[in-house]
Each structure stands twice: as structure tokens, then as C-alpha cells.
Design goal:
By secondary structure, the chain is of the alpha+beta class. The model has no long low-confidence stretch (mean pLDDT about 85).
Length: about 210
């Protein structure tokens, strides 16, 4: 009986030792999983995949060579862009949000290149200087002006809400991309196609440190 009791005590001690070892392994795995989950959440917090396209077929029209946005365009910004910014503000705060506006053009060649004033007036235009009216001398310039015009209106509507520290930047894609998002070919050069005159608005988050 005494030997049997000693054996049981040894088995119990062994089970307890194994249980403690397994618990330590489990704790290590849990810590690793929590760390990985935190890293994943941080990566997710630094992404926003929303893209809003303002395209010709939906009434957001640019006339050939023009960077003026129409009333439908302004209403689209109010109805589609501003609510997305509001959602991101609630989730991440104003200081982390970057709104990127990309301007696209068709392949029609710019004819009036003698009066180009991009270098002289582009900053003033973005700063809302009243008489600043840059003249483009390439489709890359025109794409930039279309993006900047939309960006200016977005900033205006955000300022109206008291949000002055949200970054809104304009970028040009020019004539390099088609309406189906494929890279343009040299055979597309010179093409007049209203469907290629559009603006994309994308949302990015400054990396959370």
C-alpha cells in the first residue's frame, strides 16, 4: 500500500509539472498571438482603400482642355467625399488623414503652349489667390490642374466645417492611363475621349507611430 501511495504521489507530481510546462507554452503562444494581433490591427489602421471616381459618364464632365468642375462635381464632393472624410475623422482623428486627388486627361494634344504659366501661378492658385488662373502647356499640367481644382473645393468644404488640418493634395496622371485603368499605348496619343477626363479621390492615413 505504501509503495502504491508513493507511486501515485510521483505520478501526481509529474502531472502537475507537465501541466505547468504546458501552461507556460500556452502563455507564450498567447503573448505572441496578442503581439501579432496588435501588429495586424496597426497595419489595418494605416490603410484606407476607398477610391471615389468622378467620371464623365456620370455627369462629372470636363470640357476639352478645361479644369473647371461643374455643379454635379461639387455636389458629388459634398455627397460622397465629405462623408468619407467624416467617417475617417471619427475613427482616426483629423491629423492622420490625407486626401489624395488624381487628375486624368485624354490624349488630345495641347495646342496653346505659348502662354504656359504653371510655374508662375500654380502655388497662388492653390492658395486661392483670386486672379490666379494657370495656363497649362501639357496634359500632365492639365491633369494637375483638374486634381488641384477638385482638391481646392474639398478643402473649402472641410474648412467650412472647421477642419483646417486635413491634408488634401492634388496629383497628375495626365494621359498615361485609360478609362479602364489600363496603361495607355502610344496609339492612344492624340485621342480625344471624354471618358478619359476624370478625377479619382483616394484616402490615406499617416502611419500611426
Amino acid at each position: 500500500m505504501e509503495a502504491d501511495s508513493v507511486w501515485k504521489d510521483k505520478e501526481l507530481a509529474k502531472c502537475i509539472k507537465d501541466a505547468k510546462r504546458q501552461k507556460r507554452k500556452t502563455d507564450v503562444l498567447l503573448r505572441k498571438n496578442r503581439h501579432l494581433a496588435a501588429r495586424l490591427q496597426k497595419e489595418l489602421d494605416n490603410k484606407s482603400d476607398e477610391v471615389i471616381r468622378f467620371e464623365h459618364v456620370k455627369g462629372y464632365k470636363f470640357e476639352s482642355g478645361s479644369y473647371t468642375i461643374n455643379s454635379a462635381f461639387k455636389k458629388g464632393i459634398e455627397d460622397r467625399v465629405i462623408p468619407e472624410v467624416e467617417k475617417l475623422v471619427r475613427r482616426h482623428g483629423k491629423s492622420r488623414i490625407v486626401v489624395e486627388v488624381f487628375g486624368f486627361t485624354d490624349g488630345e494634344y495641347v495646342k496653346n503652349k505659348k502662354h504656359c504659366s504653371m510655374d508662375q501661378e500654380l502655388v497662388a492658385y492653390n492658395r486661392d489667390v483670386e486672379d490666379a488662373r494657370p495656363q497649362h502647356c501639357s496634359n500632365v499640367d492639365l491633369g494637375k490642374l483638374r486634381a488641384d481644382t477638385a482638391a481646392k473645393y474639398i478643402r473649402h468644404r472641410l474648412r467650412w466645417r472647421g477642419w483646417t488640418n486635413i491634408s488634401v493634395v492634388g496629383c497628375s496622371v495626365g494621359q498615361t492611363v485609360l478609362a479602364n485603368d489600363q496603361l495607355a499605348a502610344t496609339s492612344d496619343d492624340g485621342e480625344r475621349d471624354p471618358k478619359r477626363r476624370f478625377v479619382d479621390v483616394r484616402f490615406r492615413l499617416k502611419y500611426a507611430k
